[in-house]
């Protein structure tokens, strides 16, 4: 949860610098995916052990979607290489954490 929150805060700072058209289209999509992933992980934290795997799988899907749309943002040159690399590395690390959780359940 902490790493994802830190990644979101990093994204938030970057999103303010996006071109206006991109910020209000793809930027909002990415922002929503971040907040939805945070919400799913928060729900997983408070659910029963039997239901955790379902939430973990949902978080993995949201995270993969997030990575996909960030890549599109980078491919359209709306996000520079350095910022994309920072976000990608952070999200890859979060993906490994989620993968580890899946193995536990």
- CATH domain class: Mainly Alpha
Shape descriptor: elongated
* Structural class by helix and strand composition: mainly alpha
CATH architecture: Up-down Bundle
**Range of strand content:** under 5%
Full CATH superfamily name: 23S rRNA-intervening sequence
**What is the total number of structural domains?**
1
CATH topology, anyone? de novo design (two linked rop proteins)
Q: H/E order of the elements? A: HHHHH
Low-confidence stretches: none
The quaternary structure here is single chain
Describe this structure in words.
The protein has helices at 2-15, 20-23, 26-46, 49-75, 81-104. The protein has one domain: de novo design (two linked rop proteins) (Up-down Bundle). Helix content is 86%, strand content 0%. The protein has 105 residues and is mainly α. The chain is built from 5 helices and no strands. The mean pLDDT is 96. Helix 3 (26-46) packs antiparallel against helix 4 and helix 4 (49-75) runs antiparallel to helix 5 (81-104).
């Amino acid at each position: 949860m902490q790493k994802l929150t830190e990644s979101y805060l990093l994204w938030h700072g970057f999103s303010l610098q996006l071109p206006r058209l991109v910020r209000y289209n793809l930027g909002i999509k990415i922002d929503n995916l971040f907040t939805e992933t945070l919400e799913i992980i928060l729900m997983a934290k408070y659910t029963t052990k039997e239901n955790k795997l379902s939430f973990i799988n949902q978080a993995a899907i949201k995270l993969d979607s997030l990575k996909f749309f960030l890549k599109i943002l980078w491919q359209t040159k709306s996000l520079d290489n350095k910022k994309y690399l920072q976000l990608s590395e952070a999200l890859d690390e979060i993906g490994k954490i989620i993968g580890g959780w899946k193995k536990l359940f």
